[in-house]
Write a structure and sequence with these properties.
The chain is mostly beta strands and 120 residues long. It has strands spanning 2-7, 10-13, 18-26, 33-39, 46-52, 58-60, 68-73, 78-83, 92-99, 109-110, 114-119. It starts with a strand and ends with a strand. Helix content is 0%, strand content 53%. It is built from no helices and eleven strands.
Length: 120
């Protein structure tokens, strides 16, 4: 089992910034990548960003490209999501998720989520 704990959410004005953290613990020796997802009220969960643990390859949703930056600290088993130029439409619960391997394997473990609210 891998436990994921997100932190860093909160209320921010449009144009502001927040940094989310996701700390992993437990059976973290098999690790491939970590992803960030979000779910706004009444909407489906959507992909935000992704990073691989080994070489730090990243992928972003078009909606956040150029505004969000994902990074990782391998020694701390922690992934960050730096969010800048925030918009009201970024308001959502943000979740981090763990993948043990690539290919068709999905995300096996999820955090509890952290609320991000962007006021206009």
């Amino acid at each position: 089992q891998v436990q994921l704990v997100e932190s860093g959410g909160g209320l921010v004005q449009a144009g502001g910034s927040l940094r989310l953290s996701c700390a992993a613990s437990g059976r973290t020796f098999n690790k491939y990548a970590m992803g960030w997802f979000r779910q706004a009220p009444g909407k489906e969960r959507e992909f935000v960003a992704y990073i691989t643990w080994n070489i730090g390859s990243t992928l972003y949703a078009d909606s956040v490209k150029g505004r969000f930056t994902i990074s990782r600290d391998n020694a701390k088993n922690t992934v960050y999501l730096q969010m800048s130029s925030l918009k009201p439409e970024d308001t959502a619960v943000y979740y981090c998720a763990w993948r043990s391997s690539g290919g068709a394997t999905g995300y096996e473990y999820w955090g509890q989520g952290t609320q991000v609210t962007v006021s206009s």
